[in-house]
Amino acid sequence: MSTNVEQLTQSAVAEIEAAQTLTDLSATETKFLGRNKGLNELRRLTGTLPQEERPAFGAKINDAVQMLTALVEAKKTTFRAIELKAKLQEEAIDITLPGRPMRSGKLHPLTQTSERVKRVLCGMGFEFVDGPELEDYQYNFDTLNYPEDHPAMDEQSSFFVTDTKLLRTQTTALQGRMMAEHRPPFRFATIGRCFRYEAIDATHHHTFHQVDVFMVDENLSMADLKGTLGTFARAMFGETTRVRFRPDFFPFVEPGVDYAISTPGLLGGRWLELGGAGMIHPNILRAHGISTEKYSGFAFGLGVERIHMIGSGVDDLRLYLENDLRFLKQF
Ligand code: FA5
């Protein structure tokens, strides 16, 4: 019987040593040390031995079990260490690899320009108000002193949505809305999308952006308009910027002008047209119950794309609507 214990123990030691994996080892452990298996199976034979041999036999089995258990545990620890090392190697992070660049979004160039325009005009005391893009015919044309069927409306061919609603062709439409609600003195400005039904080319789109600025107070004259425009233009395009007025017609101003800027740093000091301006037509003030004896007003408007194009050298405004990242990334 004793010999059996020794043989079994020897085979167990050999198998434990031969085990290559944790799975092998567990199988060996079950085979020799499991309940009712291997040494424990032998232990059940204790009862068949003569009384005096039983304690020695029991002790021998206990010693063998203890020794084998220790052996298995030691080997398990080794396997676990190897496994952990392999896992760590597999999951290792190569800190010498260059990092992936973080891509951060940016404001669209027209949004950047609009923000600048707002900062400058707010600094000059103008309050920014948003008007609706889907505008009443009345505010887009009638209130702005367009006589019925006047050809000036043809210059701003419109997208009509109903008989009385259209996509605004000019941000000037805000004037009527403000004059209906406010008494002078006031200064307002607005910036936003406009729409015209026209042939698209490098300087015209069906969708573009305008800024409109207007002020009504006592004793305002063309000198105030030119001074205000000059201050605005110098803040936008540089200290050396000069403003030129030339007579032009818009139904909502009298006199009306188109204005251009020139500064040595921009396109060799050429005159660059920016937009329209003038003294608010007395008809408009009167229609809103504002005394033309006491008050006068000026207004000017310009294209946001135009401002950005002048400053950046972009020569085709269609690019602003295409959202091609190769273009947008440059600003
Ligand atoms: C007007 O729209 C007037 N409301 C401006 C004004 C305001 C005059 C206040 C007097 C007093 P005009 O149609 O010229 O004017 O347009 C003004 C600017 O908007 C143009 O100089 C141009 O920069 C821009 N613009 C007009 N149409 C387009 C278009 N189709 N695509 C891109 N920009 C345009």
Task: Write up this protein.
The structure is a single chain. This protein is of the alpha+beta class and 331 residues long. It folds into 2 domains: 2-90; 110-328, BirA Bifunctional Protein, domain 2 (2-Layer Sandwich), CATH 3.30.930. The protein has helices at residues 2-18, 22-33, 38-43, 54-90, 109-123, 137-140, 174-181, 222-237, 282-287, 304-312, 319-322, 325-328; strands spanning 127-128, 134-136, 165-167, 186-195, 207-218, 242-247, 253-262, 272-280, 295-303. The strands form 2 sheets. The chain has a 7-stranded mixed β-sheet, sandwiched between helices. A hairpin with a 5-residue loop joins strand 6 (242-247) and strand 7. Helix 1 (2-18) packs antiparallel against helix 2 (22-33), helix 1 packs parallel to helix 4 and helix 2 (22-33) runs antiparallel to helix 4. It is rod-shaped. It binds adenosine-5'-[phenylalaninyl-phosphate]. Residues 170, 172, 196, 198, 204-205, 208, 210, 212, 250, 253, 275-278, 299-303, 305-306, 317 line the site of adenosine-5'-[phenylalaninyl-phosphate] (FA5). The site of adenosine-5'-[phenylalaninyl-phosphate] has 23 residues, from strand 5, strand 8, strand 9 and helix 10.
Quickly list its features:
331 residues; alpha+beta; BirA Bifunctional Protein, domain 2; 2 domains; 12 helices; binds adenosine-5'-[phenylalaninyl-phosphate]
Short summary:
This protein is an alpha+beta fold and 331 residues long. The protein is built from twelve helices and nine strands.
